[in-house]
Amino acid sequence: MAIVAVGEHEDYVLVDTTVFIYLARGQERAQRFLPYVEGRRVVLSFVSVAELWRGAYAQQYGVARRRRLESDIAGTVVVQPTEDLAHEWARLSNEARGMSPGHALGQKAQAHDAWIAATARLYKLPLLTEDSDFAGMPGLSLLLDDPVR
User: Fold this and answer.
1) Do residues 24 and 72 lie in contact, with contact meaning Cβ atoms separated by under 8 Å?
2) Omega before 101 cis (within 30°)?
3) In this predicted model, what pLDDT tens digit does every residue of 118-137 receive, in sequence order?
């Protein structure tokens, strides 16, 4: 499912891959994020879905774990790549690279995070992350004031 025009709806929240894993597994660390997702639709970037499947293959998930992952992903709104999103990713990556000092999202190693940030920015979605690499990027609305890494 793709978001066509979410706008500034408070009933959606984009979560990064790590936060999604905490929430899906019901880990203790998920407690920190629950107040931000309760009553909201969780949104994932297509790149988070790819990262989740990469992890599943790396950890050699069996049938039951793959089905659970499929079910967990199916419970979200997945934003697919579009030409508009590709342009936003390119703008954001170049903007980050040009910041002084250079922002983490402009580094090639952070390309996946840049897709997540571009998704948040294009669709004006609040972003739930604990990754400090997103901090300081103009146009992002981060839900946590104290990212940890």
Assistant:
1) yes
2) yes
3) 999 999 999 999 988 888 88
Confidence bin at 4 (pLDDT 50/70/90): very low
Compute CA distances 54 → 19, 20, 47, 91, whole Å. Answer: 16, 14, 10, 27
Longest Cα–Cα distance of the chain, Å, equals 47
Separation CA 128–CA 15 (nearest Å): 5
Torsion-angle region of residue 24: left (phi > 0), alpha (psi -120 to 50) or beta? Answer: alpha
The one-letter amino acid at 132: S
Q: Are 123 and 107 in contact (CB under 8 A)?
A: no
Place of tokens 């980050």: 96
Q: What is the pLDDT of residue 135?
A: 83
Per residue in 33-48, pLDDT (tens digit) is: 999 999 999 999 999 9
